[in-house]
Structures are given as structure tokens and as C-alpha cells.
Amino acid sequence: MIDQIPKRTPRTTSALRVGPWLALLPILPLAIACNDDPVELGRAQGVVHDPKTAAFSGELSGDVQVSISSGGTNWFDLGSLNGITIALQSDSDTSNVHGEQDAPVSTYSQVRLVFDGVDAELKAGSIIGNTTLASDAIVGLGGSDRRVEIVKQVAAFSVVTDDAVRRSILFLLNSRLWITEASLQQGVVEDAPIQSAVTAVTRVDSLP
């Protein structure tokens, strides 16, 4: 179900305006000069959490990005790739990927999480399968290219112009399904296990 939230006075940004020199170029389509419609903006953020369901601890570190799409063809990035750390197997810790961002007012149905050059740094004493780590260990995410793109279909959601609310996209990493003895021995996790394990939901947050 799409959340129905009353709109307040919209925040907007103007689309690109073409300068007067365009009159000197009659061969260009007239439509280019007419793109003055403002774009309404709402608030959105991407958040990552790894719920505690296993007996290991550590963190992810590297570049991360969150994007949203109405159909999977055109994507709006909530920010550029951002170097952050994400706690693994935590009861409460969440990581905000980009902070609160302006996003075009629209209805969306797909979300994307990208890991680029991310490592899982596992702490000594962690138990993974039948293995107890005697020292810290590092497992790379994303196979040989070190990049993982995770695309999830979610219930249709709206970004709206109401300054009293924010749309949050929450990714649950479920790392116990892809931090395994095999990945520990290989030193790397391929894309598929991560893509399969991660889930995503959205919510509306009320702002003060």
C-alpha cells in the first residue's frame, strides 16, 4: 500500500535553463528551450543494518551507495559512493549511507545497494561454522571485481514534499548467510550469496 501523506508547500529546484545564445542556433529543437518546469523535492535516506543472529562480530568498510527507481531503468542516486563502516551482527547499530537527501517527488518500487571495494573485517574470537578465529580476518566482498550491486523490489512507496516526514530505505544484510567457513577460507564472498541474503523495506519517519 502506498502511504498517503498530506503535502505541504513544496520545495523545488529549477531544471536547466538555456541561455539567450540559443537563438543563434535555429537547428536545435525548440523543446530544449522550454525545460523550465521546477522539480519538486522530498526527503529520503538509505540505512543499513545487520541483525545479530550469529556468534561473530566485526564490521564492513569501504564505499557504499543507495539508489531508488520507479521501474529499474532510470535510477536516482541518494549520493555518490561513500566510504563508511557498518557494524556486523549488531542488536542495534545502524549505518546511514548518505545522510538525509533531497529526492524527486515520485512513486518508487525498486531500491539498490552497491558495495565497491568493501571488506568484512572479522574479530578474533568470532565463531563461523565450526571455526573459531584465533586472530582478526578479512573477507573481500564481490569476487574479482570487488563490486556488488544488490537490487530489490519493494512495496511501492512515495517520496513527498512534506517537510515533517522522511522516507527511509532500510537494507538488512543478514551476513550470517554469506560469512561462512568457505568464504573465510577463500578470503572472498561472491556476489550471488550477498544478493540473495540481503532484504529491503521502506518506512516513513516523522521529523521534529
Q: Would you kindly provide a written description of the structure presented here, covering whatever features stand out?
A:
It is a single chain. With 208 residues, the chain is mainly beta. The protein has one domain (43-206). Helices cover 6% and strands 49% of the residues. The longest helix is centred in the C-terminal third of the chain and has 7 residues, at 191-197. The radius of gyration is 21 Å and the shape is elongated.
| H and E string | EEEEEEEEEEEEEHEHE
Number of domains: 1
Rounded average pLDDT: 87
Distance between the termini: 25 Å
Q: What is the β-strand count?
A: 15
> Count the helices. How many?
2
Residue share in helix: under 10%
Could you provide a short overview of the structure?
With 208 residues, this protein is mostly beta strands. It has helices at residues 181-186, 191-197, and strands spanning 11-14, 38-49, 58-69, 75-77, 82-88, 94-96, 101-104, 106-122, 127-128, 131-132, 137-141, 147-159, 165-172, 188-189, 199-206. The longest helix is centred in the C-terminal third of the chain and has 7 residues, at 191-197.
How are the SSEs ordered, and which strands pair?
Layout lengths: L10 E4 L23 E12 L8 E12 L5 E3 L4 E7 L5 E3 L4 E4 L1 E17 L4 E2 L2 E2 L4 E5 L5 E13 L5 E8 L8 H6 L1 E2 L1 H7 L1 E8 L2
Parallel strand pairs: 2-13, 11-14
Antiparallel strand pairs: 1-2, 2-6, 2-7, 3-4, 3-5, 3-8, 8-11, 8-12, 9-10, 13-15
